[in-house]
Amino acid sequence: MHTVEVPKDWALQKVHLASQYVEDQFWAHVSRSECIIPPMELDVQITLSCAQLASTLADAYTNPIKLNVNMKRYNNACGQWPTGRSDTQEARLLQKFPPSREMVLEKPCVLLDAGHHIILWYVPGALSDWVKEDISAAMHCANDLLKKSLSPANANCIWRTDRSYFYPTETPGVSPGCINVSPCWFQQGHEPHGHAQENADVSFCPEISASLKGPQGISIIKSMRRPSLLASAALRVMHPSLYWASLRTTLEI
Questions:
Q1: Which of 9, 69, 91, 204 sits in a 20 to 30 Å window from 188, CA-based?
Q2: No. of H helices and E strands in the chain?
Q3: Which domain of life is it from (predicted)?
């Protein structure tokens, strides 16, 4: 049982309430019991978006597909610091762990490995039209950042920003790319720093991502409020221990 108190005047409280509602509604669908009454603090669009997410997650959870692969052994075979760009290693992994059969996923499901661990949630239709519009708005605001994020295909760069892995988009005004907007991401692993001279007890001052410090930062943040809330709610169902760890970390920061 988790007992984490989120201050009621924090925006995080709304995320926490929505996540609780999605989890409760999810289990209500799975157990085929009565639907849960949503919290009054949530507006209509967020409530309906959460209900749609919970229903889709439940559909996926009750439609498991088992694969003949042990993900722990596969992970060990990948070795340390896999790049995903070595044709030799990829061929070796494919030979050692051949796919049992080809499948076309047409409806929500979860894929299980040989040990019955969930390795993939396939949840088409989980996002409401409101959330999709928010994501589209954020993508347009971040277009310049996305365009500048990619490296030449032959450059010595990380695979996330390798241009050869991206295709042109069909949406005008949106460029393919990969940016990181996680708070404190680039501060991890560095010495504590901040305004220690102002408060002797505080030696670490977290900052927002450098990508969000630009002129479009506020617009991106506003557009991603609902999608981020839904992502947290989905995480609470898919990976509850990670959800609670992230919540405690956010409160500590």
A1: 9
A2: 9, 3
A3: Eukaryota
Per-residue pLDDT of the chain (253 residues), as tens digits, is 577 888 888 889 999 999 999 999 999 999 999 989 999 999 999 999 999 999 999 999 999 999 988 888 988 888 877 777 778 888 888 888 888 778 899 999 999 999 999 999 999 999 999 999 999 999 999 998 898 888 876 666 677 888 888 888 888 888 899 887 775 555 555 555 555 455 555 556 667 777 788 888 889 889 999 999 999 999 999 999 999 998 998 888 7
Contacts of residue 39, defined as CB under 8 A and 6 or more positions apart, other chains included, come to 17, 18, 20, 21
Interaxial angle between packed helices 240-252 and 11-30, expressed in degrees from 0 to 180 and rounded to the nearest 10: 170
Sign of CA dihedral 95, 101, 105, 110: negative
Structure tokens at 102: 């080809």
Question: Which H or E run includes 110?
Answer: strand 109-112
Distance, in Å, from the CA atom of 80 to the CA atom of 143, rounded to the nearest integer, reads 33
